[in-house]
Amino acid sequence: MARKLFISLAVFAIVVAVGAAVFLARRTSNRAPSSVAAAPRSEATPARGGELIASFRSEPPTHNRYVDRSATGDYLALLTHATLVRVNRMTDTLEPWLAESWTESPDHLAFTLKLRPGVVFSDGMPFTSADVVFSFRALYDPRVNSPLRATRSSMESPFRLKRRIRQR
Known about the structure:
The chain has helices at 2-29, 35-38, 71-80, 129-140, 149-152, and strands at 85-88, 93-96, 99-104, 111-115. The chain is of the alpha+beta class. It has a domain at 71-152: Dipeptide-binding Protein, domain 1 (Alpha-Beta Complex).
């Protein structure tokens, strides 16, 4: 009985091995040459704009980054939200982004940001200092309990916001 079982398993293993060999032989012989390997190297300079297609394994519970604690929400925010300044990951220096420049007070307690002109939201509304003030107030509002709050400061409310609107 054990011998019959052994022979049956051996025959089964041989059939599976032959089937796999035939499958792999057909698969590699029918394959077209790789277009990636044959693609010529482009010397063109990258350009801003275009389209980015991303897929998520789950829907974010909200698109409001001030209340969303999900990984999907974090990823979505990285792709769709801009910051006043950003860190250049190559040099570890701050660079202008939505703020085109900034100045620091001599005591290092106050910063004045000059917002980049011509920035608009996806609905065409202009980006203004009121949007910056709204964002900081939402970030530090205890009723919002934003998960971003802990990443910004250990102080209760480190910012005193003043808006200075200058006519251009």
